[in-house]
């Protein structure tokens, strides 16, 4: 069966070959008898082959055009949409990058004017510890920076005037007590009045010299050897801000031995150029800045004279010092605040990113985690904020971490500024 099939297949192949040879021979013969030539036949074959090739190329170009129209244009359009969308950042990365998104609405803002300032002790709540007569310092009981309570011992001194005053008081007190016991039946009224007056005068002199009632009452014959010594005590709670003395030092009446101050509320003296016009009134707000910390303050007094040394105008402010971080002598930055007359749209300065062509942009969040850059116009500088024009009220923007968002968009190969 296989042999018969093979023979038949061989016969068909041979017949096909003979038929091809005959056809080529006839074409050659026809060319040889004057109706054509071999070159002509070949030329026609080449031309037909070339036409077929051109048709093929043309079809290829049309297919390519269709492909570009439906393929590449679609890809570019899709790329532009992705370009316009910006970038999507997952919540975990936003949290790590500390990205903050907030709604921007018109609000009253504050413009600021800067002035250097210095912390001062509150003169209304300070107390100068000083002798009221020429004295010698014997010993101290409190040191610089120490918190003291009212009535606490501060320093012990010796004075000859105090010694005489104490002796006079002891004599007058003894005489007055004796006369009182005798009564007006035994002693004349004038003698009684004289003894009382002498006693009151000696008592008043000790008060004037700085002794307390408790210290005066303790004077007795047993303390005669201690006459002349007296102790100055704190008249209020506070901190020892000054104690510029040494033991054994002689001081005059009125010399400052110690300075006590209540640091719960301090003064700030801001120095402003006399040419700068500031419309300030009592209780006008201001912000103090010291080493990254901010403190709210209010104007309590404005001087109308010029400091002869610095040639500046002094504006005094009051500041609460509840955390005890502020101390007399510190230098701070003072920013006087002036509220806008109307509500304005404003964003933190760090929310603004400059585009490649110099325009300012913010990153708007259309959907959670999806951000795109939107150009805005800048208005007034309002402290740490900047007035912006071009956003609708309630628009959610990146207020913190805008630089990170711009970096992420740039790493993705997209223009973070939609250009």
List keywords for this structure.
single chain, 419 residues, Elongation Factor Tu (Ef-tu), domain 3, disordered C terminus
Largest sheet: 6 strands, antiparallel
Strand percent estimate: 25-35%
Which stretches are poorly predicted, pLDDT < 50 over at least 5 residues? 1-5, 15-50, 56-85, 415-419
* C-alpha Rg (nearest Å): 51 Å
CATH architecture call of the largest domain: Beta Barrel
CATH superfamily grouping of the largest domain:
RNA polymerase II/Efflux pump adaptor protein, barrel-sandwich hybrid domain
Number of helices: 7
Give helix and strand order, one letter per element, not per position: HHEHEEEEEEHHHEEEEEEEEEEEEEEEH
**What's the number of domains?**
4
Average pLDDT value?
Answer: 79
Q: What is the helical fraction, as a range of percent?
A: 25-40%
CATH topology of the largest domain: OB fold (Dihydrolipoamide Acetyltransferase, E2P)
Q: What is the first-to-last residue Cα distance? A: 79 Å
Q: Give the strand tally.
A: 22
Structural class by SSE content: alpha+beta
**Class of the largest domain, according to the CATH hierarchy?**
Mainly Beta
């Amino acid at each position: 069966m296989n042999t018969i099939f093979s023979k038949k297949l061989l016969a068909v192949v041979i017949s096909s070959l003979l038929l091809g040879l005959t056809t080529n021979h006839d074409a050659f013969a026809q060319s040889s008898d004057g109706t054509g030539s071999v070159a002509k036949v070949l030329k026609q074959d080449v031309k037909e082959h070339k036409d077929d090739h051109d048709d093929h190329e043309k079809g290829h170009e049309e297919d390519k055009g269709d492909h570009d129209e439906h393929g590449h244009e679609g890809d570019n359009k899709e790329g532009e949409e992705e370009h316009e969308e910006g970038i999507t950042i997952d919540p975990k990365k936003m949290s790590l990058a500390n990205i903050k998104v907030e709604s921007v609405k018109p609000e009253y803002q504050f413009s600021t004017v800067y002035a250097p300032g210095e912390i001062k002790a509150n003169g209304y709540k300070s107390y100068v510890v000083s002798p009221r007569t020429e004295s010698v310092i014997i010993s101290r009981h409190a040191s610089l920076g120490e918190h003291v309570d009212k009535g606490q011992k501060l320093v012990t001194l010796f004075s000859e005037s105090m010694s005489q005053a104490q002796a006079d008081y002891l004599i007058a007190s003894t005489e007055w007590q004796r006369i009182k016991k005798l009564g007006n039946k035994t002693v004349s009224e004038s003698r009684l009045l004289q003894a009382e007056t002498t006693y009151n005068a000696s008592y008043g002199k000790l008060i004037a010299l700085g002794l307390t009632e408790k210290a005066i009452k303790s004077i007795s014959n047993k303390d005669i050897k201690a006459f002349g010594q007296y102790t100055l005590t704190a008249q209020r709670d506070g901190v020892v801000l000054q104690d510029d003395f040494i033991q054994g030092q002689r001081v005059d009446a009125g010399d400052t031995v110690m300075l006590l101050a209540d640091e719960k509320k301090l003064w700030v003296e801001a120095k402003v150029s006399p040419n700068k016009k500031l419309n300030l009134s009592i209780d006008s707000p201001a912000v103090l800045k010291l080493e990254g910390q901010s403190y709210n303050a209010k104007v309590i007094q404005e001087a109308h004279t010029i400091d002869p040394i610095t040639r500046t105008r002094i504006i005094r402010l009051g500041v609460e010092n509840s955390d005890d971080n502020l101390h007399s002598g510190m230098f701070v930055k003072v920013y006087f605040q002036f509220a806008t007359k109307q509500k304005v749209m404003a964003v933190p300065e760090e929310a603004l990113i400059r585009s490649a062509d110099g325009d300012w942009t913010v990153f708007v969040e259309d959907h959670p985690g999806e951000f795109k850059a939107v150009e805005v116009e800048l208005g007034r500088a309002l402290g740490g904020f900047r007035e912006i024009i071009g956003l609708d009220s309630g628009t959610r923007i990146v207020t913190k971490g805008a630089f990170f968002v711009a970096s992420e968009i740039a790493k993705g190969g997209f223009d973070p500024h939609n250009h």
